Amino acid sequence: MSRSTISTFQLFALIPDQETARQYLEERLWPNGPVCPQCTKRERITTRKGGYYRCCACVLTFTVRTEQSSSGPMCRYTNGSTPCTCC
Ligand SMILES: [Zn+2]
Questions:
Q1: Between residues 77 and 12, the one the model is more confident about
Q2: Which of 22, 48, 69, 71 has the fewest CB atoms within 10 Å around its CB?
């Protein structure tokens, strides 16, 4: 077996619930803090409950799963489903 893969049991041990999955994605996609998916700014973002963030520059409420509006390099951590801000 390749060293780059893990079993389903190992995956569930690493990411046992939705909160852990959200934190994992945020660390991967936003290594320097949350980035607004609409205006791509990170200076005026406030934290809300449940993984929600609000950009005060463009008044958008978003999560790590909100799709980015601008086109850019596709993220390898999400299998190319979203533009990348991390890699
Ligand atoms: Zn914004």
A1: 12
A2: 71
| Inside any domain, residue 25 | yes
pLDDT at 60 over 80: yes
**Dist. CA 25 → ligand 1 center (Å):** 19
- Compute the distance between CA of residue 79 and CA of residue 87 in angstroms, rounded to an integer: 12
Residue 72 lies in a domain: yes
| Residue 28 maps to a domain | yes
Helix, strand or coil for residue 51?
helix
CA of 85 to the centre of ligand 1 (A): 14
| Residues around ligand 1, an ion, CB closer than 5 A | 36, 38-39, 55, 57-58
21-35 tens-digit pLDDT: 999 999 999 999 999
> Residue 84: phi, psi to the nearest 5?
-100, 140
The model's pTM: 0.67
Could you tell me the distance, in angstroms and rounded to a whole number, from the CA of residue 52 to the centre of ligand 1? 13
How many distinct structural domains can be found in the chain?
1
Domain that holds residue 41: 19-78
